[in-house]
Amino acid sequence: MPDSKPTHRWKQLDRDLGRIGAVEYATHYVAQPLVGFGIALVFIAVAAFASTLFFGGDQYSYIVIVAAAFGAYMAVNIGANDVANNMGPAVGANALTMGGAIVIAAVFESAGALLAGGDVVSTISKGIIDPDSVASSEVFIWAMMAALISSALWVNMATWVGAPVSTTHSVVGGVMGAGIAAAGFAAVSWPTMGAIAASWVISPVLGGLIASGFLAFIKIMIIYRDDKIAAARRWVPTLIGIMSGVFATYLAMKGLSRIVNISFGAACLVGLGVGLVTLTIVRPLVWRQSEGLENRNKSLKVLFNIPLILSAALLSFAHGANDVANAVGPLAAIVHAESFGTFAGQVDIPTWVMVTGAFGISFGLVLFGPKLIRMVGSQITKLNPMRAYCVALSAAITVIVASALGLPVSSTHIAVGGVFGVGFFREWDSERRARLSANNRPEAKRIAPEERRRRKLVRRSHFLTVIAAWVITVPAAALMSGFIFVMLRMAFVG
Q1: Domain range spanning residue 421?
Q2: Which of 166, 185, 270, 328 could cysteine-pair with 410, CB 3.0–4.6 Å?
């Protein structure tokens, strides 16, 4: 009895300490985003300061400083949102750790942006708004500024709520909305917008078809074979060779264009040569790696880890080449207009502008990317190395083709379309095999429709959410951009 009070006192102290520990844990958890936010602000400030060193103009140089800050802000948001589509499948398939994915993506995103990121920029900054419809270069500059601000804000909000929206949609919608607010509907090049809109529909469908096609090939030629290991030894090196050949063709076409002019045919020959050399080198490595593996599907996952990692790196390179335009396209247009006092003719993209976009994407990936990487990699459909490889390779091929054509397609649509394509193909293949089994065994138990719906391999809620986010992005960014342009014109143009 005498010990009851001290015991109660110690229990109370334990509860108090527990509360303190919980507060410390919560503080640590909240501080992590704050640290990332602080580092991002430092990068944006450095980008703005660097613009004062590299920009050659004197008049209205503060406009370039502000534009550089928002360009860096947009690049950070692209890294936080879009890059998840590249690395999500590899992380979801457990082929890469989160840290390894971030390192690979940061290196290859920057390389793609700096080596091959120039073609799409002119489409973003020049192809959507008709220069003849804009009253003056000052109005054009504020229109580009409004597009940059609105698209960055929209992508930031989407990242905050965990929605993998298209940054390409955001920028194109922002440019279109600002152009309409500046000079009416005639200011927008509707043929260009029509081609871009068509690519938004075609790209996810094409990404899904290519991904499902590769998965069907792997299932037919490897998984459904009696000797799976022997089939994998035959076909896995070929898949790696195809991937290497595509990468080499693209690099020869675009990455080396600033050094030597290579025709499309010559680039294809380079890719063919690299693919054959890769095939020769990889075949004995795959053979050695497959020794001692059991003849079952689980063993095949080991053989696909390396091609999955390489394909993810290829996709990051292609994404950096294609989506750097979203960050620096309007910024390049503003710098050009400020430097030359005109917005006609070809836009010359300064190196510091490209570096801002490349490093901003990497910073955004490192600081804020893991959230959406997990969402894309594991919350839409279950991925293993073989399925994730199909998604990454199909997305890489589609993005490379689009970037080579100078068409600003959405890498988000392509990659997520690939994930959906793989998931829907698995559903179709599973139902097909179930029907075959039921036909061969009439006594087998029939699956009820409710149970069949429960066994769907693609989460329909995520599918509908993603589609809704895709649909709303362009009008939302356009309305926001138009409003921001009106505010900027009232404040600065008069």
Answers
A1: 35-227+295-493
A2: 166
